[in-house]
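Hi V.,

You were right to ask for the full record rather than a summary. Here it is.
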Amino acid sequence: MKRLAVIILIALIVIGCGLYALDQYWIHRYDAVIARESARYHVDPDLVWSIAYEESYFRSWKNGRDGEIGIMQVTPDVARDWASGNANATMQQRTATEVDRVLRDPERNIQIACWYLQKASEEYRDLPGREARMLAAYNAGPRRAADWNRVETGGRPFNEEEFIARIDIPSTRAYVTSILNRYRRVKSAKNSSFMGAVLPVR
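Predicted structure:
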């Protein structure tokens, strides 16, 4: 019985390690694409990664309830806006006639999402808690984010906590909070790894 228990334990450990390795591969297989497109559009790759995790768990085939498509859950309207000002004639035609197929391509999906995030980043560049505003715009649209960000004449800008409290769509407020938490955990883990590599372990 003891021998059987040991064999079962070892098998469970092996299976657990295998599942962990598979999960790590799955959630990091687009890291190079995210890094490239984030650099192109000057947005934080860790924020982009955190959005992809929340939106689809990196499933390129996922469809959203409101027509969102792919890894970053980009809408066809956003894809067409991107194509009209950033793509050649062939890609503009493809986006007009085969937008679903265009957005199923993980690289194109991430590119368009980073372009969209850049616009929000520029809109809120000098404000505290810019990432919260970017996420609100990404989830609920730039007009709603602008409404939540609007202050009285002469008033000071809202800090991050105040801005989030003004979001009157519960799902968007939860979305912003969840991604910010994950984003900060990613940052913290990277900083810890860096410090561990630089400083001697005591």
